Amino acid sequence: PVFAGMNGSAIENFSCVIYNIFLMNCTWQAGRDAPADTQYFLYWQKSRDEEEMECKLYVKDENCRNMGCIFENVTVGIEKAYFLVNGSSKDSLIQFYDEYIDLYKIEKLMPPSNITVKCDEIKNDCIIQWQRPQISHSNQDMCFKYEINVNYK
């Protein structure tokens, strides 16, 4: 397919991360050869059934160019989400960038909560308990692996 737009004008280094359960942050860099006045716009579609939405909360650089987006109330479905970043400039056509992403793969997990430690000096043992982290994509118990580092002071 022939992509309209100047070579090197599409964004680069696009990446997204989901954090604090419901927030998603996407960032990118301007295309190497994009004109200085290029402005970028991010659209995403959570699944084929849902409508495409534009970012409502852009993160801007010092030149007021959109370089990222923060999404609120994100929930993770089972389908890949579709992301599209296009651009506009007075001088030339800007190439678009698009990508499909499995949202569960980009979720940064919260730490476990309600951690308690009960030690018994007579038996010389400790019981450590916690609740599994909340995750965006499911409320059922998933298979979590935990690592415990114990430092004796």
From TrEMBL:
It is found in: Membrane. This is CSF2R factor. Residues 13-106 form the Type I cytokine receptor cytokine-binding domain. PROSITE patterns: HEMATOPO_REC_S_F2. It is a single-pass type I membrane protein. PANTHER family: CYTOKINE RECEPTOR, INTERLEUKIN 5 RECEPTOR SUBUNIT ALPHA. GO terms for molecular function: cytokine receptor activity. Gene3D superfamilies: Immunoglobulins (2.60.40.10). Keywords: Glycoprotein, Membrane, Receptor, Signal, Transmembrane, Transmembrane helix. One of its GO terms (cellular component) is external side of plasma membrane.
